[in-house]
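Dear support,

Our group has been running a series of protein-ligand predictions, and this particular one with S-adenosylmethionine is the one our PI (initials K.S.) wants archived with full inputs and outputs. We had some confusion internally about which version of the output was final, so please treat the block below as the authoritative record. The input we submitted was:
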Amino acid sequence: MVETVSMNGGNGPNSYTQNSKSQEEGSTRAKALLAKSIQENLEIQNNSRVFSIADLGCSVGPNTFSCVQTIMQAVQLKLKNCGPDLEEPEFHVFFNDNVTNDFNTLFKALPPERQYMAAGVPGSFHGRLFPKASMNFMHSSFALNWLAKVPKEVTQEYSSAWNKGRVSYVLSSREVMNAYAAQFSSDIEAFFSARSMELAGDGLLVVIMPCRAEGTLPSESTILDVLECL
Ligand SMILES: C[S@@+](CC[C@H](N)C(=O)[O-])C[C@H]1O[C@@H](n2cnc3c(N)ncnc32)[C@H](O)[C@@H]1O
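Confirmed final output from the archive:
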C-alpha cells in the first residue's frame, strides 16, 4: 500500500480544524474569483437533475464547507440568471481526501442546514476517483502542492540529488530542486489526466494553491522560507 500522510484529525488544539487559518484566508481571498469564474464559464444544461461537486483534498473542515457554500451560491445564482423555467437540480457534494484522513470528524461537522447530499470519497486525487464524465464542478484548495511521494533520489546518500536528510529544498542543490520539480510534474499530469476523464463536457475545475512567481527562487517565497526552519 502507498504510504499517505494527512492533517491532524479531531478538534483538539493541534488539529487541522483549529490550525487552518492561513488556508481559510487564502480561500476567502479567492472567493470572488471563484464566483466570477462560475458566472462566466459554467454552462448549465436544461435537463440536469443532479449537479455534482467535488472538493479534492478536503481535510476535516471547516474550510471545505465554506468553499462548497461559495460554489453552491454561485451555481444557484447562475441558475437564476438562466431564467425562471430552469428547474434547480439536486446538489451532490463529494468530499475527497486520502484514506488516512479523519472522515469521521468531517462527517460530524457537516453543516446541518446544508442544501446538498454529502458523500466521502477516500483515495488519492492523483488517480481516478469518479465515473467518466460524471462531475459538473471540481475544486481543490491548498492540496495540489502535496506530492504523491518524496522523490527517491533525494533520500539516497550516493545520489547527486541527495538532500542530506532535510525536508525542504529551499537552500538545496539544483539537482534536489530538479528532483522535486520532476515529481510535481508527473503528479500534476496524473491529476489533470484523471480529471479530464471525470469532468462532464461542460464541467469546470478550479484549483487554488500556493505558487511562486515565474522566474523567482524558492528562497524568495515566504512560505518556503518558513519550511526551511523545519
Ligand atoms: C492543507 S490541507 C487543505 C484542506 C482544505 N482544502 C483547505 O483548504 O483547508 C491539504 C489536504 O490535501 C490532502 N491531500 C494531499 N494529497 C492528497 C492526494 N493525493 N489525494 C487526496 N487528498 C490529498 C491532505 O490529506 C490534506 O487533507
